[in-house]
Amino acid sequence: MVMVQTGTMRTIEDHRRDVTALVAGISGALETETLAVSGEELTAHPERHRDRVLAGDLLSPSSLPAFDNSQMDGYAVLSADLVAASADAPVVLPVARRVAAGDPFARHAAGTATPIMTGAAVPEGADAVIPIELADPPAFPADEDDVAVRFTAPVASGTFVRTAGSDIARGNVLLRAGSRLGPAQLGVVAGTGATSVPVRRRPRVLLVSTGHEIRDPGTALQPGQIYDANTVALTAALQSIGCAVTAVPCRSDDAADLLAIVTREAPAIDLVVTVGGVSAGAREVVRDAFESRGVRFEKVAMQPGGPQGYGLATLPPTVPIVCLPGNPVSALVSFEAFLRPAILSALGVQAPLRELRRGRAAHPFDSPPATHQLRRGIVRDDGSLELVGGPSSHLLHSYAESTVLVHVPLGVSAVAAGDELDYWRIDG
What we know:
Low-confidence stretches: none
Radius of gyration: 30 Å
Number of helices: 9
Strand order of the largest sheet: 18-15-19-23-22-20
Structural class: alpha+beta
Distance between the termini: 30 Å
Shape: elongated
Strand content: 25-35%
C-alpha cells in the first residue's frame, strides 16, 4: 500500500461525530410504546414489528428451559445404575413407560430405563439421557412390556439434559435496552411467555429529494430530466433502521419551494433529510435555503460523498436537518457513514456502527490520497475483496451488485493485491 502525506481535512469521523450529536437531540421525543408480541400480531401487523428497538431492559418472566428436558431421543436413566457398565459386562435394565414432549412430569424408578423423546421433561429420579443409538438394541421397543435394554458404558450425571434456566433464569435481563428486535429477539420474548415489549417510537423523518430534473418513475421524461432514484433508495434505507418516512420531493431549484415543503411538514416530524443541492455551484437549492438559517455546509475528505450539510434549521420551527449529496451512490454511502449510525444511536442502540471487518484486496487499484475512499465490492469465496465498478458516484447499478463497502484510508494512493483493507457489509 502506497502512502502519501496529506493536509488537515474534515474526516468521516469528524462529520459522524457532529451529525450524531445533532440527531441525538431527537432522542427525548422518542417516547416508549408497547408492542404486542405474538404470531397473530406479527402476521396481522408485520409493519409494526419490523426494525424496532427495545426502550428498556426486559426481565425474563420465566426460565428457559422451564424444566429439565431431554436433548436427545433416548433413555432417561439414573447414572448410578450404570457405573459398572462395560462392553464385556453390559448393564441390563427393564424398560419403563415412554415419556414424550408435552407429557406431564413423570417419576423414574431406579434400576429402570425410561424411553424419552427430545424435549420431554426428564422424569424425577433420572439424571442423564443416553441416546437411542448407544443403547442395545438401538431402537425403541414396539411393546414396552417385559422388555429390557442393555448399556455398555457408564454415563455422567447431566449428560444430554437441558437443565432448567440454563439459557436464561427467571428475573434475569432477557434483552438489554437498545436491542434491535429481530427474529431471535422476538422469538426468545415469546419463548419466555411475554406478550409485549417496550419499544422506542419510530423516528419520523421528512425525506426531501431535490432537483429541477427529477421525475417519478413511470412518467414520461422530457430532455434533461431523470427518474428519481434517491427517494426510493433513501426511504428504503431509513425504513431499514426503523424510521417512519414522509417523502416529499422538491422538483424545483427555488429555495422558497423547498422551505415551503419543510415548513409545512416540520411540525409532524423529528428530523429532516435532504438529498442534493449541497455543493458550491450555482442554484444549490438546499444550500440556498438553509445556509443562512443555521445549517453548516462543509467538504468531508471522503469519496463519494464529499459535500455535506447539517445543523438546526431555524424556519420556524427549529428542526434538525441532515443534508446529503445528490448523486445516488454518494447519498447511500453518506447514509451508511453518517445518518445510519446517528439515528441508531438516538434510538439507544449500543453498537450503531456497522461491524468493521478485514480482508485482502483481490487486485491492485489506485485511490486519491486526499480522500477516504469507500469503494463498492464483494467478498470472494477465498475471502478477498473484489471491487465492483469504478469510484464514480453515479454508478448505482454497481452499488446494487455489491455486498460490501471497502475502506481505503486517507493518504493511500495505491493498493496492491493482497493488501489488507477494512470493509462494511451492506447486504443485511
